[in-house]
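Anyone able to model this chain together with manganese (II) ion?
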Amino acid sequence: MESINNYLRQNKDRFLTELTELLKIPSISADPAYSQDVLDAAEAIKHSLEKAGCDSVEICETPGYPIVYGEKTIDPKLPTVLVYGHYDVQPPDPLDLWHSPPFEPVVKPTEKHPDGAIFARGACDDKGQLYMHVKAFEYMVAEATLPCNVKFMIEGEEEVGSESLAWFVPRHREKLANDVILISDTGMIANDIPSITTGLRGLSYVEVEVTGPNRDLHSGLYGGAVANPVNILARMIASLHDENKHITIPGFYDKVEELTATERAKMAEAPFSQEAYNKALDIASEYGEEGYTTNERNSIRPTLDVNGIWGGYIGEGAKTVLPSKAFAKISMRLVPDQDWKEVTELFSKHFKSIAPPSVSVEVRPHHGGQGYVTPIDSVGYRAASKAYETTFGKVPIPQRSGGSIPIVSLFEKELESKTILMGFGLDSDAIHSPNEHFGVWNYLKGIETIPWFYKYFAELSQ
Ligand code: BES
Ligand code: MN
Ligand code: MN
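re: yes, here you go
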């Protein structure tokens, strides 16, 4: 595996050019206008897996976007690693806040990435990170050092809820059989503080619609005498948290796993500066649930947030109108052992119950998924830990993340194997935001670290 550094030196320009080409494809799964581009991205991934040395690669059709599946079997007696990633990306909006166009990648230095970062939608989430696996695999095949069988399963609907993958996995249990699932679609604490993600939050995402009068009204003629659904929606949403920022939905916390004082003390050992955090976000002060630290609030505690809210007149200038309808999109991040369907039900019931009789309320669930926690004594975790130790010179810190990859809990249920989350992004990489980027150093460090995972995983599996 030592030869990876040589291989990187000789090929890093090509590795960057290839990633750049992939990032030019606007594979936005949420927007049907880009469906051809999403399919093109699948083709590009297929081609890259073939070139890297898979024995076979297929584009597997599903009711939605296809799954790209590739494999290389070197010896059925050796352990098998299943690599998961996603080739779809988030919409780049708002476009005017990008310093360079989202699908015309450029490399520029940043404070956190003095050696340069590649700016493009999907650079970190997840094209850059999934491509590290393709290149690490290419190296192991080229130098004949691949110590495990490999399966790649790359989907195109992660950013919209992975519905087609949830359909695909139970239908192909045998084909997908593996000893460990490896994913790079999360982050780490800092470039000099490696960490391994040991948990993901679950999610319940709903849309609400509040209807007052049967048409928009003159806000002078009717204002004050008829319920304004925007005013009402604002009140209803505000009431979902109490003064301690606890969520007020009855039963919401019933199944929330409480961490022991020891576990919380362990968490608090991870390096963290509240001051740097506030400064990076230009906020004067943190905000959140009473009794918990910032790192607890964004990982081991459940949340409720409005993601978007609209209604009435939002065009130029003023129009006096009392709107007929108001809408909001609301996400709840969940923790073990909350059940997302149950929480969606609790929300729906409560939200309807707090509406005054002068409006009607509809709650439409979008998608959701269970949280995930991975043990730190598994063969996979120990292999990952040794890999980071080898390439970073430091033992990585286990850390639960606030983000969600809902399909991971389904993998555990259907494929009965643990997932190891080796993410190389930073929180400041602006995933889902304008100017998303991925450090060139991080990209190459990922390619360097992954082959060590394979080596240690094979050794520790014996
Ligand atoms: N890669 C992210 C999730 C993530 C990022 C987890 C950083 C941990 C650290 C993934 O692509 C994502 O954005 N997931 C969505 C959920 C999905 C159902 C739309 C999310 O977390 O909002
Ligand atoms: Mn992702
Ligand atoms: Mn994402």
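The longest helix spans residues 440-461.
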